[in-house]
């Protein structure tokens, strides 16, 4: 599908007219123009010589509820000219304040600004924002350095940025998702948080990815002591991780010693126990055992005596194919067991970690190839549309690569590093491109389409 982008502009001196580039004269007739759920007809068409602009008379521009001038992809289906993508960023936790998403407001400002550099139109919305009778949304935009609300069409594609698993379980959220995906047939991507054990289970069944996974088991209250003793005997160091955890919270590192074992967390110094039995007594009080997995500890590369792992961000492109958009190293903090920045971890560039150019290029290629393979297998085995994944990968002292975690809603903390600004821009471009791919595929999957 060949796509060409046009700038969509309001034409102030005409009425009920769509002004198209001259190349459209050779196309099929156009009887209507649409943005998201809004469609306007009953206009005349004129042609002009500006090959990259579509001008809409001010009344049509207003009737389509276009909030700002932008570039857009155009597809013609059943004599209707569709402008897009119209991206609805779906989230929860709205507040009646100057920062409507609280601490997450800055993240969404950057996201909206990033999208505006590319194509289409994007806005924030939640379950409360939709007027089902009118088929509109009270969308949240960030313009001229302030948040504003505008009435907008329902989106042509939904990008899910719900903040946590609790929000996804809301009956209102689930009903909104059902209506938009089943009744309106809107594509909705990154629709859920990954469960660590489920992802591990899926990747273990594929010979392309099984060798990237540390030895892991799901804990069961009935035999948790035996399983942990066995893993400690085999690997000396193991990690206990909550299956639905995030940000490194709730992770324990267990290290076998001659006199018992040492337990470390991201909260500080280690605690010694004489036996696994003694530790499990305390662990049962603090945690739900069947919510945890136990995982082999890997002897990772280090820098300045700090453990290293690597965040590799993948996104689908305009053709729906996986690409690598960012790679960065993360070093653990003092007295912590993970590299998460919230617990004192720091971001380092590959130039710092691998100063020798040949080694750096080789490691970048291996990390990238691994992430693409993992993305493809996860995409094949998991339901729904998945458009981006953030991987935490490790490299051991032999050069082997290991996957510790896959995140369906990866954070953006690493992009605070100055050297990763270009990656942040590229991720924004990929999300817009994939949104355009999804929305146009939804329009044309059962229809013949002409794309200019």
What features would you describe in this structure?
The chain is an alpha+beta fold. It is built from 10 helices and 28 strands. The strands form 5 sheets. Strands 1, 2, 3, 4, 5, 6, 7, 8 and 28 form a 9-stranded mixed beta sheet that branches. Strand 3 and strand 4 form a beta hairpin. The longest helix has 25 residues. The radius of gyration is 25 Å and the shape is elongated.
In brief:
It is built from 10 helices and 28 strands. It has 452 residues and is α+β, with helices and mostly antiparallel strands. A hairpin with a 2-residue loop joins strand 3 and strand 4 (38-41).
**Ends: how far apart?**
10 Å
Report the strand count. Answer: 28
Overall average pLDDT? 92
How many DSSP H or I helices? 10
Percent helix, as a range, is 25-40%
Strand content: 25-35%
Structural class: alpha+beta
Mind summarizing the main beta sheet?
Answer: 9 strands, mixed
Taking pLDDT < 50 over at least 5 consecutive residues as the criterion, the unreliable ranges are 446-452
Shape: elongated
């Amino acid at each position: 599908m060949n796509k060409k982008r046009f700038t969509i502009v309001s034409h102030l001196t005409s009425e009920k007219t769509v002004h198209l580039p001259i190349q459209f004269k050779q196309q099929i007739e156009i009887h209507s123009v649409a943005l998201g759920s809004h469609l306007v007809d009953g206009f005349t068409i004129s042609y002009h010589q500006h090959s990259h602009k579509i001008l809409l008379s001010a009344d049509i521009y207003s009737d389509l509820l276009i909030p700002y001038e932008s570039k857009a992809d155009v597809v013609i289906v059943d004599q209707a000219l569709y402008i897009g993508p119209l991206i609805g960023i779906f989230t929860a936790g709205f507040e009646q304040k100057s920062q409507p998403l609280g601490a997450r407001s800055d993240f969404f400002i950057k996201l909206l600004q990033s999208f505006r550099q590319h194509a289409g139109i994007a806005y924030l919305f939640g379950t409360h924002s939709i007027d089902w009778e009118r088929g509109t949304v009270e969308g949240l935009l960030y313009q001229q350095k302030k948040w504003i609300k505008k009435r907008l069409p329902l989106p042509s594609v939904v990008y899910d940025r719900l903040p946590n698993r609790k929000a996804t379980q809301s009956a209102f959220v689930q009903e909104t998702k059902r209506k938009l995906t089943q009744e309106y047939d809107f594509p909705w991507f990154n629709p859920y948080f990954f469960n660590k054990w489920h992802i591990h289970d899926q990747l273990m069944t594929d010979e392309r990815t099984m060798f990237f996974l540390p030895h892991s088991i799901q804990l069961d209250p009935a035999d948790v002591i035996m399983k942990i003793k066995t893993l400690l005997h085999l690997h000396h160091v193991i990690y206990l991780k909550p299956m639905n955890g995030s940000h490194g919270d709730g992770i324990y590192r267990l290290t076998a010693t001659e006199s018992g074992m040492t337990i470390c967390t991201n909260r500080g110094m280690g605690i010694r126990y004489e036996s696994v039995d003694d530790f499990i007594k305390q662990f049962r009080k603090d945690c739900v055992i069947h919510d945890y997995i136990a995982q082999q500890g890997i002897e990772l590369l280090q820098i300045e005596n700090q453990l290293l792992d690597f965040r590799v961000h993948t996104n689908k492109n305009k053709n729906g194919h996986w690409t690598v958009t960012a790679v960065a190293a993360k070093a653990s903090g003092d007295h912590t067991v993970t590299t998460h920045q919230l617990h004192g971890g720091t971001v380092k560039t590959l130039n710092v970690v691998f100063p020798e150019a040949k080694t750096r290029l080789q490691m970048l290629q291996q990390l990238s190839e691994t992430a693409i393979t993992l993305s493809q297998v996860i995409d094949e085995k998991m339901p729904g549309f998945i458009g981006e994944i953030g991987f935490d990968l490790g490299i051991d002292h032999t050069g082997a690569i290991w996957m510790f975690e896959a995140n369906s809603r990866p954070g953006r903390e690493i992009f605070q590093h100055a050297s990763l600004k270009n990656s942040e821009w590229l991720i924004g471009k990929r999300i817009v491109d994939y949104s355009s791919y999804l929305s146009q595929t939804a329009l044309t999957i059962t229809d013949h389409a002409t794309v200019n």
